[in-house]
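Q: Got one fold?
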Amino acid sequence: MNVNYESRYAIGPNEANALDTAALRANFLIETVFADDAVQLVYSHYDRYIAGGAKPVSKPLPLETIDPLKAAYFLERRELGVINVGGAGKVTVDGELYELGYKEALYIGKGNKEVVFFSNDASTPAKFYLNSAPAHQAFPTKKVTKAEAEIVELGSLETANHRTINKLLVNSVIETCQLQMGMTELKTGSVWNTMPAHTHDRRMEVYFYFEVPEGQAVSHFMGQPDETRHIWMHNEQAVISPPWSIHAGAGTSNYTFIWGMAGENLDYDDMDKRAIADLK
């Protein structure tokens, strides 16, 4: 079996406020997203969300079911989002082949029994970042490129948060049950993401940071708006954001991150915005 997984239980803000740095990281940080010739997964009890990665190097990697799902196959009752952040690769879904280049996405609907990941060149392997959520309906599998994404420009260089939001697997682009994924690219000279911050009590979120230059880092902020905490993160690491928590970050350089979320609804703008001056 090429799948490694761990479960993370959901905790509330009162419990999180009492955590030291090591415990905060153990509960929310996903340090290892990619491992050679393995599928790495974290099963979160926040909205039963799964985040992880598949990195085929010397062999194809099938997406096998894991015990917490109690399912005959991984997508028996789930949907899956895939974004390639490595070299060129391909994914087969019940035998149908999809080529995925750098920063290209694939939505795979409920009911597909066999998903296999491949790299085109072992010297520059593909890195498939994966997010999955429970699904009640089967929607078609579909590839989405950056050119097909809904694109939004936000922020400014003056406030160090000039960024491009690429909405890839969202309801304005494709049909999904509850999973939504996109990618935010910060411009040179900008370091802040998701600022002003917000919460959304109706869904949770996971951030995956990449294109963080060697020797640089991102400080990810979480917690209730009046009781924030931070987690230092490095390239190709992810962090779980509970519904009660803000999710924002500032890097020592510009970077890119993938956001994925699931919960009550598909309204991207369903946010409880928090003024910068009110953060503590």
User: Anything to note?
Assistant: The helical segments are 13-17, 21-28. The chain has a mean pLDDT of 96. The domain at 3-278 is CATH 2.60.120.10 (Jelly Rolls). The CA atoms of residues 167 and 182 lie 4 Å apart.
